Amino acid sequence: MTSLLTFHEIPPLSLYVHLPWCVRKCPYCDFNSHEIGRKSFKESEYVDALIRDLETALPHIWGRRISTIFIGGGTPSLFSAEALNQLMADLNARLNFYPDIEITLEANPGTAEAEKFRDFRKIGINRLSIGVQSFANDKLEQLGRIHDAEEAKAAIQMAKSAGFAEINIDLMFGLPGQTVNQALSDLQTAIDHAPQHISWYQLTIEPNTVFYSKPPVLPEEDQIWEMQERGQALLEKHGYLQYEISAYAKPEHQCLHNLNYWQFGDYLGIGAGAHSKLTNVAEGSITRSARHRIPERYIELAGNAAAVSDKRELNKDDLKLEFMMNVLRLKNGVHPSMFLQRTGLPVSDIQSQLHSAEDNGLLEWNITTLKPTEKGQRYLNDLLQYFMHDNNRMAMQKF
């Protein structure tokens, strides 16, 4: 247990809803996703389970308003509009939404349908995140995607025609065999479609994936660095401002849900494998929890305490590191006062680490600013070492 933390205000609260099924598991994916099958895909039963799960969590968030909702997966656009309409109606009946709430749905071009997109917009979903990953058919095949380049372009147009004013395109670089010019061509195609937001990130090989057991040949490090530098310049030229390591947006179009994560806000996660981080101001504590990962088991347990497979209270060392792991992803950082607001700890608890990181050119810190330098952004893992307790370091090395 931690010593009591001191909070002067309660953090913003977001809701994450996990829909775990997809048509086919991609070889690079380490998310909790499961290939769809006639027996395993239980749409209505799963929505009912989500609401039972939510109802058991309500006492932990009484009186708090929801600022954003993110429906992720898996491939949430596999679900019918009727199922998602029921979900949104049930959420709205039990939660207090801000009037201007951002509600994002992840969509796969391979499951895109114009009528379905129109129905999604009608039921209150106001932001689509489209998992394109590449506009090159050979790269899409290598990545195990179920769509081709034309279907990706068509899905973006469908989203616009359906009335979505907030669209994100997910795009990767550093793909197997990819040249710098190919990566920039991909990015230019995304820009030409004029979304409000582009998530542009490097392919990384994660444990427990097909690519981890059978690694593809990726570009050399200097090629990847050139892709990143030239790509960032291209994005900036077209008015996409970087606000996080892999997030670029037109002014006033940042993803508010992800910003809440990166600013160490609170979030309730429901669904198979979903994670939560909740602050209890009265008890002076912050708790993390996770649901069971297997969809069938989750459906069976939802509504009971046993649906939560892991729960722990964060100690002071956890809080220092986790706060920094999130806010230092932001290009412009945060106001130093946010450390106290979100962790309940005084800035003096990390003052020596801040000075050391600043002395080594990795961090900028003063009475109004806490942010990584350009060097700190490039060497973020080195920067985070300053805030890592021995136990955290050992855990990360083991992972």
Number of strands: 16
Strand content: 15-25%
> Structural class of the secondary structure composition?
alpha/beta
How many domains? The number is 2
Mean of residue pLDDT? Answer: 93
- Alpha carbon gap, first and last residue: 24 Å
**Whole-angstrom Rg:** 21 Å
Count of individual helical segments = 16
- Side by side, the strands of the main sheet go 9-10-8-7-6-5-4-1-11
Uncertain runs with pLDDT below 50, 5 residues or more? Answer: 391-399
Task: Please identify the top-level CATH class of the largest domain.
Answer: Alpha Beta
Helix content: 25-40%
3D architecture notes:
This protein has helices spanning 43-57, 81-94, 114-122, 137-142, 149-161, 180-192, 210-213, 221-237, 256-262, 295-301, 316-327, 337-343, 351-359, 374-378, 380-384, 390-398; strands spanning 13-19, 21-22, 34-35, 65-73, 96-107, 127-133, 167-173, 197-202, 241-244, 247-249, 266-270, 275-280, 285-291, 308-313, 363-365, 370-372. The strands form four sheets. Strands 9-10-8-7-6-5-4-1-11 form a nine-stranded mixed beta sheet, sandwiched between helices. Strands 12-13-14 form a three-stranded antiparallel beta sheet, with no helix packed on it. It has a two-stranded parallel sheet with strand order 2-3. The protein has two domains: 13-260, pyruvate-formate lyase- activating enzyme, CATH 3.80.30.20; 316-399, Arc Repressor Mutant, subunit A. With 399 residues, the chain is of the alpha/beta class.
